[in-house]
Amino acid sequence: MSNDKYLMSFTVGGLFHRESLLLSSQFFELGDWDIVRKRVTAENLLQARTVSALKRSCREAVFRLRTLTEKELEFLVEGSHQEQGYLLWIAICRRYKFVAEFAVEVLRESFLTLKNDLTYEDFDSFFNRKSEWHLELEKITPATRGKLRQVLFRMLREADLLTAGNMIQAAMLSPGLLELIYQANRGEVLYFPVFESELTEVKR
């Protein structure tokens, strides 16, 4: 059994692309995430239908954005739509070890072995394997497990790493994003379906 418990609270929303850009812009204006959350909640800047949904979405998106450095946040605001999606995927992997390990052990491994699609069975197999070492996963109900699977696949599609038909899409990491990744943690390249030999060399 692992003492390093998985955090499994990613059942809210998806990639939060639009919301993350708005929150990041607010952060550069206000300089404090707590103040950002208060303003966004008070003024419903995320245009949520209910107060509870607003608070959940804002809290979850901010948790992820807090994993990014200020330089990465600047890149998020200024980057292309695809670069933004990739950076948000990195933030999710930093926040959730379970997702990071799925990205490396299932998504990327499938890509490297020329398995073109990703299935719900792949998720279930991974979940069951991890349950042997993480007893907290055994406490998750079938309904919640299904929601986790659904949201994870949604995030992958929104990050442009899966097609609508769940076919794996090779990541097209730009030199600018690669440089950011290498500065923070070169190993985070492994969160993406990509052959390292095809990556653009970045001078450090």
From TrEMBL:
It holds the Pfam family BrxA. It comes from the Bacteria. InterPro entries: BrxA, BrxA_sf. This is DUF1819 family protein.
